[in-house]
Design brief:
The protein is α/β, with parallel strands linked by helices and 346 residues long. The chain has helices at 17-25, 46-56, 70-80, 99-110, 126-134, 138-141, 165-170, 182-194, 214-234, 245-262, 269-298, 309-341, and strands at 4-10, 32-39, 60-64, 85-88, 94-95, 114-117, 120-121, 153-154, 159-164, 198-200, 206-208. The protein has two domains: 4-211, Alpha-Beta Complex (Spore Coat Polysaccharide Biosynthesis Protein SpsA, Chain A); 233-341, no CATH class. The strands form two sheets. The chain has an eight-stranded mixed β-sheet, with helices on both faces. A three-stranded mixed β-sheet has the order 5-11-7, with no helix packed on it. Strand 1 (4-10), helix 1 (17-25) and strand 2 (32-39) form a beta-alpha-beta unit. Helix 9 (214-234) crosses helix 12 and helix 10 (245-262) crosses helix 12 (309-341). It is globular and about 75 Å long.
């Protein structure tokens, strides 16, 4: 049983960090070497809580991350990690009790260079519920294998991840030029260096809280779009096509609209837009009707009564649109900076 370092980058996680640390400290796995928490300048009680726990259990150690971004935090923890295995964790996820044990079992059984589970979601308000359902559709996940909670097998990336520490050091850790999408970029490097080596297992279960407002959701996917562009530049051949799809599709619509407005011939753009809107609504209805009961039972964590089918339908449709427009905008923004200003990084 290899020794394990759990690495958690955090920023203002006072509501969750004690629960997350306690869960890992109480793990059944017998060889947890340490838990490193890299704080990016929290202004709440996050650092204080971590320090209090570290005084009671010396396996917990707080590290400062003055650059704030996760890539820097992860690299600092990789440099200092004492464990043979580096398990990446998130500061506000929910983890199944056997999460660490299952990661190690799958890791050793498969011989993969990185293993993890699918990106499962929980929700406590209607907007989060809409996003959690949106990723169950191709319109929200683009066909990503790690978004399918029943999939088992090799993929191009996973949620979070479990690595040999020496492998992370060998390939140079996480790319600090790519502030978001750093997981996907690193996994592409693993595949390019070691072949098919990133494994998704339904045994490895954790749950993620999506953004709780459409403004935050747009900003998140705007950053994702920027990150996808940078990943595409770094890995033009191996980067998955789904990273380009929102940009190419919405760009085609924009060009179509402009052409329709500037030519005398009627190209019927409003009808096409209406048809696409109907497609989103119909797909949202299908996903809500097929997943609502299971979602309320397994994914709803709100104190209030869960939203009804109509509310879920509308919020899922809105989430799909916000996610795609945000991704397109971030991709276009980064493309514009590179073409006109020569900016190659973030």
């Amino acid at each position: 049983m290899p020794s394990v370092t759990v690495g958690i980058p955090v920023l203002n996680e006072e509501n969750h960090i004690e629960r997350v640390l306690s869960g890992f400290l109480d793990t059944e796995y017998p060889n947890l070497q340490e838990i490193l928490v890299a704080d990016g300048g929290s202004t709440d009680r996050t650092k204080e809580i971590v320090q209090e726990i570290s005084q009671k259990d010396e396996r917990v150690r707080l590290i400062d991350n003055p650059e704030q971004y996760q890539s820097f935090a992860l690299n600092r923890m990789i440099e200092q990690a004492k464990g043979e295995v580096f398990l990446r964790a998130d500061g506000h996820c929910l983890y199944q009790e056997d999460y660490l044990k299952n990661n190690i079992e799958v890791f050793l059984e498969t011989g993969a260079k990185n293993v993890g589970g699918s990106q499962r979601y929980v929700a406590s308000n209607s907007i989060q519920a809409g996003t959690a359902l949106a990723v169950k559709s191709f319109l929200g996940n683009g066909g990503a294998k790690y978004m399918d909670d029943t999939y088992e097998g090799y993929a191009d990336t996973v949620f979070l991840g479990c690595f040999w520490t020496k492998d992370l050091r060998e390939i140079g850790g996480f790319n600090t030029k790519n502030i978001t999408n750093q997981d996907s970029e690193l996994n592409l490097r693993l595949i390019e260096n070691f072949g098919e080596s990133v494994f998704v297992s339904p045994k490895i279960k954790s749950w993620y809280y999506p953004r709780d407002s459409y403004t935050k959701l747009f900003k998140q996917y705007f950053r994702y779009g920027r990150g996808r562009f940078l990943t595409k530049v770094l890995h033009p051949k191996s980067s998955p096509i789904r990273g380009l799809t929102p940009f190419l599709f919405i760009l085609s619509l924009v060009i179509y609209l402009i052409t329709d407005l500037m030519t005398l011939t009627n190209l019927y753009f409003p009808y096409v837009a209406g048809f696409l809107g109907a497609v989103v609504l119909v797909e949202s209805l299908r996903v809500v009707l097929s997943n609502r009961k299971e979602f309320i039972k397994e994914n709803w964590t709100g104190e209030r009564k869960p939203p009804g089918s109509v509310s879920l339908l509308l919020h899922m449709a809105c989430s799909v649109i916000v996610m795609q427009v945000g991704h397109f905008s971030g991709f276009l923004y980064q493309l514009f900076r590179k073409v006109f200003f020569g900016v190659k990084g973030w």
